[in-house]
């Protein structure tokens, strides 16, 4: 029979794997056929990191958590716009990014449910390992959206 810790580890690994898979799909949105603004990227990845921190807090609470207050979807709140000729590509980016980030948020909500100590046992190290991986994945995908440097200059020599 599976222990409560083994169940936590199995479900935690599966849910984090799903988050990684969807984040890989979000990474695909950095391709040239999509148009996004810095505001879009900032909001997308700030939300990712903030929800990760909020989820981690559930695991750090001293008593069992009975109600998961994590959101279950993502919608852009900024009203960023692009030039008219790239409007369609920008709208496609936002539609797909919202859909994919909503899947990440939903799976993170399921991961947060594992914080209930009446059903699962886990160590602080296991929680840290989960959320360090979560944070690193977000940073790696966000880096794909950063503008590439096109120019080199020497630092001032004084």
Walk me through the structure.
- The protein has 4 helices and no strands.
- It is an all-alpha fold and 158 residues long.
- Helix 1 packs parallel to helix 4 (124-143) and helix 2 (38-60) packs parallel to helix 3 (87-112).
- It is globular, with a radius of gyration of 19 Å.
What is the secondary structure topology, with strand pairs?
Elements: H1 4-27, H2 38-60, H3 87-112, H4 124-143
Helix pairs in contact: 1-3, 1-4, 2-3, 2-4
How big is the Rg? 19 Å
Please give the oligomerization state of what you see. Answer: single chain
| Extended strand count | 0
Question: How large a portion of the residues is in β-strands, by DSSP E?
Answer: under 5%
Major sheet details: none
Secondary structural class: mainly alpha
Contiguous low-pLDDT stretches (5 residues minimum) are none
Average pLDDT: 91
Shape descriptor reads: globular
Helix content: 55-70%
- Spell the H/E element sequence: HHHH
Helix segment tally? 4
Cα(first) to Cα(last) distance is 69 Å
Quick structural gist:
The protein has 158 residues and is mainly alpha-helical.
């Amino acid at each position: 029979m599976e222990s409560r810790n083994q169940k936590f580890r199995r479900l935690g690994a599966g849910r984090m794997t799903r988050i990684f898979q969807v984040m890989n799909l979000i990474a695909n949105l950095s391709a040239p056929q999509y148009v996004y603004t810095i505001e879009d990227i900032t909001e997308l990845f700030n939300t990712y990191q903030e929800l990760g921190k909020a989820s981690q807090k559930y695991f750090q609470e001293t008593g069992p958590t009975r109600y998961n207050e994590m959101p279950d979807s993502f919608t852009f709140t900024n009203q960023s716009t692009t030039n008219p000729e790239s409007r369609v590509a920008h709208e496609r980016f936002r539609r797909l990014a919202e859909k994919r980030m909503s899947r990440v948020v939903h799976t993170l909500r399921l991961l947060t449910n594992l914080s209930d100590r009446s059903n699962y046992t886990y160590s602080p190290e296991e929680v840290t390992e989960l959320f360090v991986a979560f944070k690193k994945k977000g940073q790696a995908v966000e880096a794909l959206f950063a503008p590439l440097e096109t120019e080199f200059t020497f630092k001032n020599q004084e």
